[in-house]
Structure formats: structure tokens, C-alpha cells
Amino acid sequence: MARHLDAYRLILPDRPGYGESEPLGVSHTLTNYSQWLDGFVCGIGLTGFAMWGHSFGGSIALIQAVDGKRKPSAIIGVSIAATRGGLGRLLNTSYYQVGRLIPAKPRQMWLANKPMENATGRLLFKTTRGQERKALFSERNAALPLLKPRVITEEYLSSLRTDLEIYVGAVTVPILFIAGARDIIVPLGQIRRLASKARWGVLEVMPDQGHMSPLEIPAAIASLTEEFLAKNHQT
Fold first, then answer.
1. CA 112, CA 35: separation in Å to the nearest integer?
2. Per residue in 52-107, pLDDT tens?
């Protein structure tokens, strides 16, 4: 998606514990991640910046915008990981809770399971087909060996305990919420409720999309981002 935002200076950090970045020295909660993000922003001297986040990243951006020393002038959150409900929450929670009971080496195999990832991918990706879907699956599978079970389990369970509505209500800058109407991970109703708590919130619903719209329709998500920033981000 970043390729469609070439009018902006983009900074795309790996979250600690993901990609090739080392884990945090503390538990991987959304609050601790927001403190890391604030330190990152301050450390590279950012001013006059907007924050863009998908899923957990959107949740972290909201918390940093409230508690951070250097706050963004606007936030774009796509499929923000609001407290999940229904079948998606039950399946995810059961999956991670089982993983916590498994010894370290088998736990890696459980949480970085290729057949499981491919099965969930078929539920998460809604509109891509053929070679495009095959390429996305291939990228996901290539990243599986880098997954760190403790990191993803701590982050997921932290999201269940974190009430984002409190943070959204305290954010003092404009927020664009982008949601997929077919998202089984974070149902549309949850995002609607979250957006209703914002002082300056705009909700855009993608009718045919699920949780992975930045991968499935990157140009469209980038276009919504640019339109929002043109109206709400001054520098």
C-alpha cells in the first residue's frame, strides 16, 4: 500500500517482536507497545506527523495519541483491533489459550502452522483470487518462521483486556476509521461503536472487504488515506 502514497514521507518500522526486530524487554501489551512507539517518534525527532495503523497497529496508535509525548495530528485506523465479539473472538481466544499450554518448541509449530494459516487466510481474504491470492499466501507462509509465539499471544490477550473506547474518547485529533463490512476478526458493529465515541471521527465502510483490505485493495485504502489527510493534516 505504501507504493500508492508516494506523495508522503513514509516511515515503516517493524514492531518489536515482528519481522526481524527483537522483542520488547517487557510484556507485549498494547500499552507497552504505545510507549515504545512514543519513544521511537521522539527518538527520530518527528513533528507534524500523522499515524496510520492496521488492526493491532491502529490500537497502538490510538493509545500513543492519548498517552504519548509527541502526538500525531491525525490518525488513520484500518480494522482497528477493538474488543472482538462472536465466533471470531471465541476461535481466536481458544487458539491462543491452547498455545499457552504447549511447550516452547511445539508451541512454535502450533502458532506458525502453515495449514492453519492457509485456512484462516481463506476466511480473511475476501476479494483476491487466482495468482494474486496465491502470492499473498506465499508471503504469509514465508513469514511464519519469524513468528514469535510469546509476542503474538501476549499482544492478542492484551487486546482483549484493553478498552479502546476510553482512549478514542480522549483523542483530540481527527480519526479516520476504515472497516470491512465482512470482517470476521473485528466485526463492523464494533468499529461503528468505537467510531461513535470519537470527538472528530469519520467512518468509511468497505462493503466487500474483510480484515485485510490494505493487502487486497491497497490503492483504494491509500486513496481514502490521502483524501482524509488533505482535509485533516496540515504539515
1. 27
2. 999 999 999 999 999 999 999 999 999 998 765 555 555 666 666 665 656 666 66
- State whether residue 54 is helix, strand or coil: strand
Instruction: State the first-to-last Cα distance of the chain, in angstroms, to the nearest integer.
Output: 21
DSSP tag of 175: E
What's this model's pTM, rounded to 2 decimal places?
A: 0.85
- Helix, coil or strand: residue 5: coil
Sheet containing strand 50-54, edge to edge, reads 50-54, 74-78, 175-180, 201-206
Domain count, the chain: 2
Q: Please give the Cα distance from 212 to 23 (Å, whole number).
A: 24
| Helix axes of 86-100 and 149-161: crossing angle, nearest 10 degrees | 140
Domain that holds residue 49: 26-84+162-232
Helix (H) or strand (E) holding 75: strand 74-78
Considering the domain architecture, whether residues 77 and 97 belong to the same structural domain is answered as no
Give yes or no: residues 147 and 38 share one domain. no
**Phi, psi for 140 (deg, rounded to 5):** -60, -45
What are the pLDDT digits (tens) for 132-154? Answer: 777 776 777 677 677 788 888 88
Q: How many CB atoms sit inside 10 A of residue 152's CB?
A: 18
Angle between helices 30-43 and 56-67 (to 10 degrees): 70
